[in-house]
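Key result, reporting period 2: structure in, sequence out.
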């Protein structure tokens, strides 16, 4: 079960919980047992969770850049993508 976070926690702190909920939502939708209305509600919730996760990842990257070079965070290079097949 996901750890509970406070409502005012940062998106980075809520990332794992949001990702877990999103994975559970996708699983429910893939089984096809939801009504159309339930599917639409699940899709809307999923989009919101996806946006929360994306925001958390962006904020985490900014924090890493600031830690890597606090004087010039804009000069930091983006992380290299993983090699194909990984």
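The corresponding designed sequence is given below.
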């Amino acid at each position: 079960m996901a750890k509970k976070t406070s409502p005012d926690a940062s998106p980075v702190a809520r990332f794992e919980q949001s990702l877990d909920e999103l994975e559970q939502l996708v699983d429910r939708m893939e089984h096809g047992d939801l009504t159309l209305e339930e599917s639409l509600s699940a899709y809307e919730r999923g989009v919101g969770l996806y946006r929360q996760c994306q925001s958390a990842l962006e904020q985490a990257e900014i924090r890493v850049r600031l830690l890597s070079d606090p004087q010039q965070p804009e000069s930091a290079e983006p992380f290299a993508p993983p090699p194909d097949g990984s």
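The helical segments are 11-31, 36-68. The chain has one domain: 11-71. This case is discussed further under Risks and Mitigation.
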